[in-house]
Design goal:
By secondary structure, this protein is mainly beta. Helices cover about 0% and strands about 35% of the residues.
């Protein structure tokens, strides 16, 4: 169950990769079978972003999400256009030391799907909670790296365990829901379909257990509104 990030070259058939062309860029050992995270996306800057969970078990027993010396519990950012097998973008937050240079953001438990808004470049992350709260994290386009999203000092916006170091700053989620409404968030996408003019800019996200689908929208005043839109007879694993 370890994580492998690999690239393949297209074959003569433009819809198929050449299976013999695999080049492994990055490997991460997973200590447990759960919380492996999920998601790859190229950002508007051309960098490849990789979401990894905290490694599993429960309550992050080895404190990986807050450690800058492991790739687990992180959002990583690398350049696959440079280097061998990849390069570190020069503005990654730890290029001058203090931790692993691939790290872009940390304090994640199990980021199960993230997405960039195709119009604005804003980043949304659905992060699965422990036993009480599910959350949506938001990093606006142009944000510097190094955001601490809180786990496991916090679950959502709520204290969870341990005492944060003095001066620690966390980026609170922009939306959360309790386990009275679901049990495992599945991050979605921002609607930019021109055939759906009334839905422009709404971030859709769902819950694996209940089939609930919410819409999240930021108003002109900067305040976020989240509303339950649908309840599907399905376990939502991805959008």
């Amino acid at each position: 169950g370890n994580t492998v990030i690999a690239r393949f070259t297209v074959s003569a058939n433009p819809d198929r990769a050449d299976p013999a062309s695999e080049l492994r860029l990055l490997g991460v050992e997973q200590p447990y079978a759960n919380h492996n995270g999920g998601g790859l996306a190229f950002g508007p800057d051309g960098s490849l972003y990789i979401a990894l969970g905290d490694g599993g078990s429960a309550n992050d027993p080895q404190g990986r999400a807050q450690s800058l010396n492991t790739l687990l519990g992180k959002l990583l950012r690398i350049s696959v256009d440079d280097g061998d097998p990849y390069a570190i973008p020069g503005d990654n937050p730890l290029v001058d030391g203090g931790g692993l240079m691939e790290i872009w953001a940390y304090g994640l438990r199990n980021p199960w799907r993230f997405a960039f808004d195709r119009l604005t470049g804003d980043l949304y992350i659905g992060d699965v909670g422990q036993g009480a709260w599910e959350e949506v994290n938001f990093l606006p386009a142009g944000s510097p790296g190094g955001a601490n999203l809180g786990w496991d000092f916090r679950e959502g916006s709520h204290p969870f365990e341990g005492q944060p170091p003095e001066g620690a700053q966390f980026v609170d989620p922009v939306a959360e829901y309790s386990h009275g409404e679901g049990c495992s968030i599945t991050g979605g996408v921002v609607v930019r379909d021109p055939s759906l003019p009334d839905w422009q800019g709404i971030y859709l996200y769902g819950d694996y257990c209940t089939g609930n689908v919410w819409g999240l929208l930021r108003g002109a005043d900067g305040a976020w509104q989240s509303r339950l839109l649908f309840q599907l007879d399905a376990n939502i694993s991805s959008f």
